[in-house]
Write a structure and sequence with these properties.
12 strands; alpha/beta; Nucleotidyltransferase, domain 5; 29% helix; five-stranded mixed beta sheet; 2 domains; 245 residues
Length: 245
């Protein structure tokens, strides 16, 4: 395999209603596409992958690793994304690097003075949340992924961060902004819609410092679910009820 400087990565995210695909060579972004998928990731993902590869002038066989958002997020979207990269990895004999959607969102806000509270709309009046520090440029978790009501998520972040101002991002902050504005510490800020969806290029950058899954271990790679879905959960799926310690 090429040295890290020339490593090629195909990264894809299907955790939200807006998906994205990126092809990166070393630190150079060759192509990134964001698409509105809704509940039709199965119809929109492969055309986006094909367009990215053709634009980057790289056939699938020359991809060195695959990166994928493992969750939390859309249950259907996560299954489609993971199934796709596992199939690619099996055909090309390459590793897969899974990264959480919360980490990818936090990584888009590097070198911040205050902790980053990521909230993804989980419906049913809840959010998937995680608290990170990014002052060194990379997201370091203070509170690992968990699910809770939006105000409860803020209260948990405040307890861990000693009440300092927070920087909030994610679709959960868009949906519950009015409620959250009166619950966050004074001086807190909302990143806004631009930082509400994971970026596949950001995912590719993170994949270089995350552990990869290879060979037979790929069979055990499943979506990270923080709570059971409304529909029946696949028996092999990974579930971390409540999240965190």
């Amino acid at each position: 395999m090429n040295g890290e400087r020339h490593t090629t990565t195909l990264a894809l995210d299907t955790s939200h209603r807006k998906g994205s695909v990126a092809v990166v060579s070393g630190t150079e972004l060759l192509c990134e596409i964001m698409f509105d998928a809704g509940d039709t990731h199965s119809a929109t993902l492969m055309p986006a992958v094909d367009t990215c590869l053709r634009t980057a002038k790289l056939p699938l066989r020359l991809i060195d690793r695959f990166a994928v958002v493992s969750g939390p997020g859309s249950f259907t979207g996560l299954r489609i994304g993971l199934a796709t990269v596992k199939a690619f990895a099996a055909v090309c004999h390459r590793p897969v690097v899974p990264v959480t959607s919360l980490e990818v969102l936090a990584a888009a806000l590097p070198f911040t003075a205050h902790p980053v509270l990521v909230m993804i709309d989980a419906r049913r009046g809840e959010v998937y949340a995680g608290l990170y520090v990014t002052h060194d440029g990379m997201p370091i978790p203070l509170v690992p992924p968990f699910s809770a009501g939006p105000v409860s998520a803020v209260e948990r972040a405040i307890a861990v961060s000693d009440g300092v101002p927070l920087l909030l991002c994610g679709t959960g902050t868009e949906r519950y902004g009015e409620i959250l504005s009166s619950a966050v510490p004074r001086g807190s800020r909302f990143a806004g819609p631009r930082w509400s969806f994971p970026s596949a290029s950001q995912l590719a950058a993170l994949s270089g410092v995350k552990p990869a899954v290879c060979g037979e271990d790929l069979h055990a790679l499943e979506p990270l679910y923080i709570r059971p879905p409304d529909a029946r959960l696949p028996s092999a799926a990974k579930l971390e009820a409540g999240g965190g310690p």
